[in-house]
Every structure is written in C-alpha cells, then in structure tokens.
Write a structure and sequence with these properties.
Layout: E1 6-10, E2 17-22, E3 28-33, E4 37-42, E5 51-54, E6 60-65, E7 72-77, E8 81-86, E9 91-97, H1 106-111, E10 116-119, E11 126-131, E12 134-139, E13 144-149, E14 156-161, E15 167-172, E16 175-180, E17 188-194, E18 202-205, E19 212-216, E20 218-225, E21 230-247, E22 252-257, E23 262-265
Antiparallel strand pairs: 1-23, 2-3, 3-4, 4-5, 6-7, 7-8, 8-9, 10-11, 11-12, 12-13, 14-15, 15-16, 16-17, 18-19, 19-20, 20-21, 21-22, 22-23
GO molecular function: transcription corepressor activity
WD repeats: 10-51, 53-95, 234-266
Keywords: Repeat, WD repeat
Length: 266
C-alpha cells in the first residue's frame, strides 16, 4: 500500500467533530460533535446521516459501538454524562453520570476524568480508558483495574485496540506507544514512535494491514509501519484530526477533523 485515497466526505455537523467510530459488523459509522449531537451514517450511502441523536446538554466528547450488539451505541459528553442509544429504535435507552456511577473507574475519577475509552473488539471483556498520562485496562466483568500503563510523560489523547484485542495503542502529543496485553507479556510497551514536529492526537490500526498504525495529526495523517519502524505523512484535512476509526467490513479508515469534515480512506 503506497498511500490512502479519499472515498467520500460527510458534512452535517455544525461545530467541531470530536470522535468517529465504525460499527464492528456493518458499514455504519457514528460521529460526535461540539454541536451536542451524535450522528449515524451509512458508509455505502453517505450523502446524509441516517440518524441524529440529540439530548446531551454539553459537547459530546466520545462514542463507541458495543462489539456484540450493533444496535447499541454509547456516547459521553463534557459533563461526564453517558447515554446509550438504540439505533433501530432511534431513541436514548439509558442515561447516567459517570462521576456518580464510576464503579469500575475509581482511579480515573481521582485523576480528573477520562479523555477517551474503548471496548476491546469482538468480546468487549476489557475496557481501555485514558486519564491524564495513564492508560488503565479494566476487566468489565469483575469491575477491576488489571493494568495501569504509565510510560507517557504527557496527557493521552487517544487509545485504540488492534483487531485481535491483544494490543492497545495510546497517543500523546509527543509519542505513540503500543502495549501488549496477550499472554506472556501483558502490559509491556512493545513499540514506540516519537513525533517529528507535527504533534500527534489520534490513532487507529489499519483494518487490512495489522502492522500499520494510522496516526492523526494537525492537517495530516502519519502512516507508521511498526514492524519496520518506518513512517510516511499524508496531507488530509484543514484542521486537527481529532479522531480516527476503521471498518473491517469495508476496509476503510475514517478521519474526523476540526475542519467539520469526516473523510473516508481506502
């Protein structure tokens, strides 16, 4: 693969886009925004959003599809309110405050709250959550923190899992780290990349090339081959690339930027 090619651009949000996620089992993707909405799109027919969820009182900061239930979408806002949405019923099914019900995340509450959280792919047994310069790995069933990954020196902006669920990547403005969570080397940092001037912000493993990590920067994407430890820069947006997502079903990568655009790459 030499580079990425733009497939389509999605434009409906009125303010900055903060996050983008593909459904694990379909061509749907979802976006969140400072405009307090969550939108769901069909990547095969992206001319307009198929759902627009409203109800958050403040900017929506992050969102994620449950790996085993493609109808379930969750989102969180700047006031630590978490909402569960049914895509099929086009309604909010649950609302709670993470600070009030942070049963599985007492360490994160003490550090001042999350910047991002992601379910482990396929089974959803583990949850990766970033707060300040630490990534915590929780066992969702037992509600315990099983790993605390602490080698970043600056706040972590983004976390992502690889397709196997054995590796998690974390991004701060000056570095990207990949951590092994498989048997035998759990919690070890196995790959590291320092920025070359353009500060890092987001990341995602490429759906078709497991050794390739796509990193979102200001206006550009960094493509990092972790095995060869080589990287290349691709011009992409007119603003900061706040979030990235990948779709195993389509082989596409989505980039969401502060320029109010989502771009699809293949």
């Amino acid at each position: 693969m030499d580079t990425l090619k733009l497939k389509s651009t999605l434009e409906e949000h009125s303010l900055l886009i903060t996050d983008v996620r593909f459904s694990p089992n379909s061509a749907r993707l979802a976006t969140s925004s400072f405009d307090k909405t969550v939108r769901v799109w069909d990547a095969d027919n992206p001319s307009f959003s198929m759902r627009s969820f409203q109800g958050h009182a403040t900017s929506v900061m992050s969102l994620d599809f449950h790996p085993n239930n493609e109808d379930l979408l969750c989102s969180c806002d700047g006031d630590s309110e978490i909402r569960y949405w049914s895509i099929n019923q086009n309604t909010c099914t649950k609302i709670f405050k993470s600070r009030q019900e942070a049963v599985i995340m007492p360490l994160l509450s003490e550090r001042g709250g999350m910047t991002q959280m992601r379910f482990q792919p396929r089974v959803g047994r583990l949850l990766a959550a970033a707060a300040e310069n630490v990534v915590s790995i929780f066992d969702v069933e037992t509600e315990t923190c099983i790993h605390s990954l602490q080698r970043h020196t600056k706040p972590v902006h983004s976390v992502c899992w690889d397709a196997t669920g054995d590796f998690v990547a974390s991004v701060s403005e000056d570095s990207v780290r990949v951590w092994a969570l498989g048997t035998g080397n759990e919690g070890d940092c196995v790959h590291e990349l320092s920025c070359n001037g353009n500060k890092f912000h987001s990341c995602v493993f490429h759906p078709n090339y497991p050794s390739l990590l796509v990193i979102g920067c200001y206006q550009s994407l960094e493509l990092w081959n972790m095995v060869e430890n080589k990287s290349m820069t691709v011009p992409a947006h007119d603003g900061l690339i706040a979030a990235l997502a990948q779709s195993p079903a389509t082989g596409m990568v989505a980039s969401a930027s502060h320029d109010k655009c989502v771009k699809l790459w293949k």
